[in-house]
């Protein structure tokens, strides 16, 4: 006959596997645990998406950053689950400590990563350098803590009411996955547009700390010793204090970090819902710089040189109807409108925020010649790929692709064979397509892949380049504007449906004479480029991007 155990003294946690002493009925307790799982899962996924979004924003190439963050995090979750097995006898205290630490690390992760980026700017080296190592460290730590939740939550659920392992796993994972769904949808559609990356992470951490602490200290407080309860209270109050202080100071931090990244002349900084837009300078004789997601897209020092090279060679033939893909800043349209005979210019820009700034920001509107006041200019807020799919054949005499560099993952579809096939269809038989294809000297494989892709789409190409002054103006993925990373040239490609376009400037009466471009220079640079052509490259497609 088995003797019954003597009752445990007050404040002593039950033995491993023993029933939890709850202040509510078991059914209510089980519901509260699953509700806590739901919230914590939502917070965990927000941390993951925050790291992916910030890494892609700071380093470009979102596919690589997502692969690294998620693979490291999933690996760490497995290690965390194994390591947490040792904490099962103290599941309540262990879970409370893990949630407090997860709230602190996850909530502060975006702030720490952006601070390192802003004040070091060193994201271009090997994976072992500081900022990249910090990204991996955060992914690893958050993954370990998220993985450690699972066995502890399973133990807490079983202590409330014993059931078969399969049923307990099903309940736990159902709450976890539904919470992940809510977190995954809340981040892009609610948190990011309303609060931004830094504040979203801080608030998510606060919610995580409150729910984790309330679940353990409220529901399982009788399973904790007095010392454990006080330690968890102190830990959670400290975490909430840190997160609240950071939230109060986050605006000052963002301003300081923005000045560290962009300089002291920042006038405009806004998140449009599609990208971050920053304008620096443009007043008191200082040149205007326009940054989109941290990449310098317009430089007052080099804007005319770049846009003259992009637009004027394409305008040497018929140019009654012109389509500009991208170019919401209005500078390509400014060069188009300098040519007589232009009846209509359609600008397809995905971000209406850029167009609003180009219309209403005085320095930027002066730089683009207030082109949006011209009745010939029509703006369409749409994705360039989707717009071209709806355009009737033979619509435009000139199509100008003033889009971000193909080295940015989100832009690769706009440099694909399918995209150029749609552009070819939109051209008249004698029409010309002008494509910005990135710097040749620093990324020759990317440039010649664009040329190969245009040819695969049935277009005849004429590549050319224009030397820059090393100012750092680039539409590509380079984050730094320092002289060591500044492109020394810009690569462009003219393409035609029926024959190879001639590299020339318009001889039409009244045609503008570019200040930074000559026909002889275009031809000479084109011949020099042909001698460096890379052969054997494959075309980039939607399902097989090669940039």
UniProtKB/TrEMBL annotation:
Spans annotated as Disordered: 1-20
Organism field: Streptomyces lanatus
Main location: membrane
Lineage, opening ranks: Bacteria, Bacillati, Actinomycetota, Actinomycetes, Kitasatosporales
Pathway assigned to this chain's UniProt record: Amine and polyamine biosynthesis; spermidine biosynthesis; spermidine from putrescine: step 1/1
Membrane topology note: Multi-pass membrane protein
Protein name, as recorded: Polyamine aminopropyltransferase
Job of this protein: Catalyzes the irreversible transfer of a propylamine group from the amino donor S-adenosylmethioninamine (decarboxy-AdoMet) to putrescine (1,4-diaminobutane) to yield spermidine.
UniProt record similarity statement: Belongs to the spermidine/spermine synthase family.
GO molecular function, one term: spermidine synthase activity
């Amino acid at each position: 006959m088995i003797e019954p155990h003597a009752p445990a003294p007050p404040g002593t946690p039950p033995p491993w596997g023993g029933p939890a002493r709850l202040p509510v009925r078991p059914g209510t307790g089980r519901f509260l645990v699953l509700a806590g799982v739901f919230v914590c899962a939502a917070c965990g996924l927000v941390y993951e998406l925050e790291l992916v979004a910030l890494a892609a924003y700071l380093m470009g190439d979102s596919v690589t950053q997502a692969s690294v963050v998620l693979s490291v995090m999933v690996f760490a979750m497995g290690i965390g689950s194994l390591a947490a097995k040792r904490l099962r006898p103290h599941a309540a205290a262990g879970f409370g400590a893990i949630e407090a630490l997860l709230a602190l690390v996850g909530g502060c992760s975006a702030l720490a990563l952006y601070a390192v980026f802003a004040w070091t700017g060193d994201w271009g080296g090997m994976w072992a350098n500081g900022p990249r190592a910090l990204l991996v460290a955060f992914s690893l730590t958050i993954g370990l803590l998220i993985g450690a939740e699972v066995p502890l939550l399973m133990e807490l659920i079983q202590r409330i009411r014993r059931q078969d392992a399969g049923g307990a796993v099903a309940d736990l994972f159902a709450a976890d996955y539904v919470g992940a769904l809510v977190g995954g949808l809340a981040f892009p559609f609610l948190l990011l547009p309303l609060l931004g990356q830094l504040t979203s992470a801080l608030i998510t951490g606060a919610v995580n700390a409150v729910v984790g602490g309330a679940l353990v200290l409220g529901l399982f407080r009788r399973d904790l010793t007095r010392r454990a309860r006080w330690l968890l209270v102190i830990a959670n109050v400290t975490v909430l204090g840190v997160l609240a202080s950071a939230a109060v100071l986050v605006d000052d931090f963002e301003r300081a970090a923005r000045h560290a990244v962009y300089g002291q002349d920042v006038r405009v900084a806004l998140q449009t819902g599609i990208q971050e837009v920053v304008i620096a300078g443009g007043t008191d004789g200082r040149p205007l710089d326009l940054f989109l997601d941290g990449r310098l897209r317009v430089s007052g020092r080099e804007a005319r040189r770049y846009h003259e090279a992009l637009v004027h060679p394409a305008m040497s033939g018929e140019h009654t109807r012109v389509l500009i893909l991208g170019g919401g800043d209005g500078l390509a349209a400014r060069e188009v409108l300098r040519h007589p005979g232009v009846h209509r210019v359609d600008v397809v820009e995905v971000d209406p925020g850029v167009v609003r700034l180009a219309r209403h920001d005085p320095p930027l509107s002066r730089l683009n010649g207030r082109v949006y006041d011209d009745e010939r200019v029509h703006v369409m807020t749409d994705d360039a790929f989707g717009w071209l799919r709806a355009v009737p054949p033979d619509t435009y005499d000139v199509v100008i692709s003033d889009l971000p560099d193909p080295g940015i993952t989100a832009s690769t579809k706009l440099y694909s064979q399918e995209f150029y096939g749609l552009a070819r269809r939109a051209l008249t038989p004698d029409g010309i397509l002008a494509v910005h294809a990135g710097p040749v000297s620093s990324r020759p494989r990317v440039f010649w892949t664009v040329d190969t892709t245009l040819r695969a789409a049935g277009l005849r190409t004429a590549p050319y380049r224009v030397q820059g002054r090393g100012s750092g103006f680039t539409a590509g993925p380079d984050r730094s504007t320092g002289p060591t990373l500044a492109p020394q040239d810009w690569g462009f490609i003219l393409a035609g449906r029926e024959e190879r376009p001639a590299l020339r400037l318009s001889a039409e009466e009244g045609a503008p004479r570019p200040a930074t471009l000559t026909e002889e220079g275009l031809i000479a640079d084109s011949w020099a480029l042909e001698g460096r052509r890379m052969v054997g490259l494959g075309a980039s497609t939607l399902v097989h991007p090669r940039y």
